[in-house]
Write a structure and sequence with these properties.
Immunoglobulin-like, five-stranded antiparallel sheet, single chain, three-stranded antiparallel sheet, 1 helix
Length: about 180
């Protein structure tokens, strides 16, 4: 009987050693970051922003890429406490559930919404914000060294094909990233 137990133990040890190779490391992921004391008050303590796009005719959005209804909006940063090495800020739009990953625009989530219509965000200078790209999303960070900064943006309708009529509604979340 003890011979059978010894053989069973040996076989079990052999399987344990053989299976160890299945868990070999293939690489390393190194994660770096920074915690900063830089903070700002956002829009005087009201960080939620509502942008009302104007009503436009579907005839202004007849081809893919056509835009209409450009509407500016601002994220005002005040009472910033910058520290050395973190003197700029940028808004990072981070709700990927509402982004068309092929266009980088916000999808229309309105029930019975206008077909072939998305909402594109851009900087005040007209540079498209590539919401699907991560990083700075094509934006230039703004200095907060004076204690205040204004982040200016534009939202507008953008056609993905010949637009139909209907409501347009979407949203994204944002975070202020201090660099």
């Amino acid at each position: 009987m003890s011979k059978k137990i010894a053989i069973a133990a040996a076989v079990g040890a052999l399987f344990a050693v053989a299976s160890a190779g299945a868990f070999a490391y293939d690489g390393t992921i190194t994660i770096n970051g920074q915690v900063t004391s830089t903070t700002c008050s956002i829009n005087a303590g009201s960080p939620n922003i509502s942008v009302q796009l104007p009503t436009v005719s579907a005839s202004t959005l007849t081809t893919a890429g056509a835009t209409a209804g450009a509407t500016p909006f601002t994220i005002a940063l005040t009472n910033c406490t910058p520290v050395q090495g973190a003197g700029t800020a940028i808004a990072y739009f981070d709700d990927m559930d509402h982004v068309d990953m092929s266009t980088g625009n916000l999808v229309n989530t309105a029930a019975g919404g206008a077909p072939n219509v998305q909402v594109a965000l851009s900087t005040a200078s007209g540079t498209p914000i590539a919401l699907q790209s991560g990083g700075t999303q094509g934006q230039t960070p703004v200095s907060v060294s004076s204690g205040n900064a204004t982040l200016n943006y534009t939202a507008q309708y953008k056609a993905t094909g010949k637009a139909g009529s209907g409501p347009v509604s979407t949203y994204t979340t944002y975070s202020i990233s201090y660099q």
